[in-house]
Amino acid sequence: MLSLSSLAQTEPAYSKGQFYFNWGWNQAQYMDSDIQFRGNGYNFTLEDVVATDRPTHIKPDVYFNPETITIPQTNIRFGYFVNDHWSVSLGYDHMKYVVRQYQTVQIEGSINTGSPFDGTYDDDYIDLTTGFLKYEHTDGLNYVFVGVDYWQRLWAARNTNVNAWNIQVYGTLGFDAGVYIPKSNVILMGNEQSDRFHLAGFGLSGNASININFWKYFYMAVQLKSGYINLPDVKTTLDDSDYASQEIVFLQENFVLGFSTHF
Where are the alpha helices (DSSP H) in 10-156? Predict the structure, then answer.
């Protein structure tokens, strides 16, 4: 029979001066968003545009292959405990954002480019066909951020006969702030495709998670994250004077695997 100690008798899994690293995967949901397009001969807004993420099907040869490991929607974080409850971190979320093709949305503004879409629009309706617009951040709606997290132990168990096995459960609350560097895949009204990395804006997010620590050094966590994204400068063509702007609210679910230690 295993002899389990009480919570008070178990040492903290994380302590001041400890580092941690985790890698995981995410899926996300996005609220409908207005997208404004500006450029030579046009200035119009598409209202309440529906978009989704694009998770990669779970296949070991994709998720754990060094050559394809960055294709799925991934999360990376490296952190440091400033005391037994607070940590600071640097993180990267590789998200994906895809405007649903062939949806019908309202359009406000004007187009005068010599294209079939020329006209003045006053809350008219338009179909997002591939000839009019393809709009994706599929090579990454990339979020690079710094974070602050509070850790609270919720439960712990330890085998007192074999002083090596223990499990501890932590709850965390955190706040992140950073920049978005998407690689946007956009084709607008027949222009040549724009598909390049660009600093497009900033984001703020909050998160809550449950962490299960094994043998003090390893852990896994499930996390719920919500945030706000402001993108005032999304490149839409190869002409830098053409750009789109939008604000996005998202909800994200993450699963991560991690390692912590003192160096």
Answer: 60-63
